[in-house]
Amino acid sequence: MWGLPVVVLAVSAWVFSTAWPQLRAELPTLGERQLVQQWSSGASKPRERSHWTEVASALLESAEIQPRDPLLHELIGNMYRVASVQDWAVDSERTAWLALAEQHYRLSLDLRASDPLVWALLANTLEESGKLGPPMHQAAERAIQLGPNESHVQQLMLTLVLRHWTAWPDSVRDWVVRLYARGTASQRRAINELAGPFGVRFSSQDEAPTADAGR
Q: What is the pLDDT of residues 124-171, one digit of tens each?
């Protein structure tokens, strides 16, 4: 008679004890998490240094409680990238913050290596840090492989690849060529408008476009 209620209570207690650390980390910082999402999307920016510092302190404390939350590490990486482009940041701070952003993106990927957006964010952070070699190439290739149909990932990677067109391996440049080939007329125009400032232009010939520059 009492068997089922006891089992239900035991399961409920187990679920609560499992979920509680994450809830304890997330609930007090919901506002800060939303702010960083707005900052990283460009919808708003920190009012001043002290405002960013308050948000950073709250999220870093949350990470101490829940160190294995990949979304939180992604958010903290975004938080540091946001700080690096503020007017009140000095060069030494920008360098340090980009290094911390890279660190947290890598922590996120250690916990969830299949996330194409974080690979794309890592690739862009490496570029912003002046690290244009193989680690950036690897991050870009992973983003492209894992997020072939994710528009936000495509936008982040397309801009990055076009900006350093001749520096990429063929596998990355071929991705852009294929993206252009599959695109509608308006999408192709948009790609060429994006590519123009970097001295790159794609042409369509028998549905097999090639880049006019950088090959």
A: 999 999 999 999 999 999 999 999 889 999 999 999 999 999 999 999
CATH code where residue 66 lies:
1.25.40.10
Do the domain assignments include residue 132?
Answer: yes
40-73 pLDDT tens trace = 999 999 999 999 999 999 999 999 999 999 999 9
Residue with tokens 């994006």: 194
Please report how many Cα atoms fall inside a 13 Å half-sphere around the Cα of residue 207, on the Cβ side.
3
Residue 200 falls within a domain, yes or no? Answer: no
Whole-angstrom Cα Rg for the chain: 21
Helices (H), ranges, 44-128: 49-65, 70-84, 91-111, 116-128
Please count the other Cβ atoms lying within 10 Å of the Cβ belonging to residue 117. 17
Q: What is the pTM of this model?
A: 0.83
Q: Could you read off the pLDDT of 2-28 as tens digits, one per residue?
A: 565 655 555 555 544 555 555 555 656
What is the tally of structural domains in the chain? 1
Bridge partner list, 203? 210
The whole domain housing 94 covers 3-165
Asked whether residue 114 is domain-assigned, the answer is yes
Is there a domain that residue 170 lies in? Answer: no
Element (DSSP H or E) covering residue 169: none
